[in-house]
Amino acid sequence: xxxxxxxxxxxxxxxxxxxxxxxxxxxxxxxxxxxxxxxxxxxxxxxxxxxxxxxxxxxxxxxxxxxxxxxxxxxxxxxxxxxxxxxxxxxxxxxxxxxxxxxxxxxxxxxxxxxxxxxxxxxxxxxxxxxxxxxxxxxxxxxxxxxxxxxxxxxxxxxxxxxxxxxxxxxxxxxxxxxxxxxxxxxxxxxxxxxxxxxxxxxxxxxxxxxxxxxxxxxxxxxxxxxxxxxxxxxxxxxxxxxxxxxxxxxxxxxxxxxxxxxxxxxxxxxxxxxxxxxxxxxxxxxxxxxxxxxxxxxxxxxxxxxxxxxxxxxxxxxxxxxxxxxxxxxxxxxxxxxxxxxxxxxxxxxxxxxxxxxxxxxxxxxxxxxxxxxxxxxxxxxxxxxxxxxxxxxxxxxxxxxxxxxxxxxxxxxxxxxxxxxxxxxxxxxxxxxxxxxxxxxxxxxxxxxxxxxxxxxxxxxxxxxxxxxxxxxxxxxxxxxxxxx
Length: 487
Prior knowledge:
Elements: H1 6-25, H2 29-45, H3 49-71, H4 75-110, H5 125-141, H6 149-157, H7 159-162, H8 170-178, H9 187-220, H10 227-258, H11 276-282, H12 285-296, H13 306-324, H14 328-346, H15 348-351, H16 356-375, H17 379-387, H18 399-406, H19 409-425, H20 429-444, H21 448-452, H22 459-474
Helix pairs in contact: 1-2, 2-3, 2-6, 3-4, 3-5, 3-6, 4-5, 6-8, 9-10, 9-18, 9-22, 10-16, 10-20, 12-13, 13-14, 14-16, 16-17
């Protein structure tokens, strides 16, 4: 089920909230938690009942291993259960996400003909698998309280963060679901949640899905693009993935507030970053946190000298690229970001002397070029896209891109306001102005967390919230998945 769908907004979510708080009102705490867990399972299994079964089995296996570690004092047995947990979780992830990619490359190298599994990728498998890995590792380290199976199942399946994060640790969610003061509606949190949800939905439906139409046309045949068209498509994708993921994070953050749960911030205005290092401190923050805690630090972090630090950084970014998808484009994207991170570390004293606004623009351009490889279906297409930046043309947009822009609501509105002549005389002018405005929004405006926590919930904000919700709901004719559902 998708947040940006009629069934979620008009039926599922109201039923979950009302049922959850009603059961708490009746002093049925376990039933309330069970109801929330059951509805989270319905949310996940709405489109595929078979993958719901896989999620349930995964929860049972990991909980059992954690309990076994808790009950034994023998270090060797604890290590054995830890190894089984890692093998199980990473094995499931490998089979569904990476097996066919591995076989494809093996067949190419060995000129063999090994068969593919061709399994459909279950939604959210990378997220809930990493979440359970963190729980198994923390159980081995003795960093977990004793939770009931119901509490653990609620933690893993909590629907706001189940499919695309944030990656939440057990001690960030279960204690908040336990806390008695959170078992009734808190109207301040309700206001925060609805406002954050409205902003996120608008980002997804009104901005990201709009830009996706231009990006799809642009990547359909990269061989026909000149430098102007290429730059516009690349920037549009950079903005699309920004508003798409930001929108999801805002909606998840808002839904969490409506259950009196403040989920960890996962997205903090990354295009305000003045370096690649800062960008990754702001983008998908809980994934960066996971890699830091469970890969970078165990490898030695920055404690073993510069050379080992650089090696560790590259390993983390290589894993990050692989985590995002089974394609060489993702691996190359991870390497590009790793090299950018090392560049920042090596020249940090020199770079700090450059005005921040210049560094922000350079970082945005770097990330946009890297995103073009991320979006490409193959390395060849990604290289061709970047190479098109050197292809001069007549200064006009590729016809189908210009047509895609002309169908956007914003462009039709400008045409009715008398700017149709300018748009026809210079096809790239208004699209460039449009994306520049969006870039400025990303770099200048306050983000959702800052707005939500400012405490101002007067008539003006209520009107904005209702207006964005209505506009977004009326624009749901084409319901689209969030980009990070694919990872």
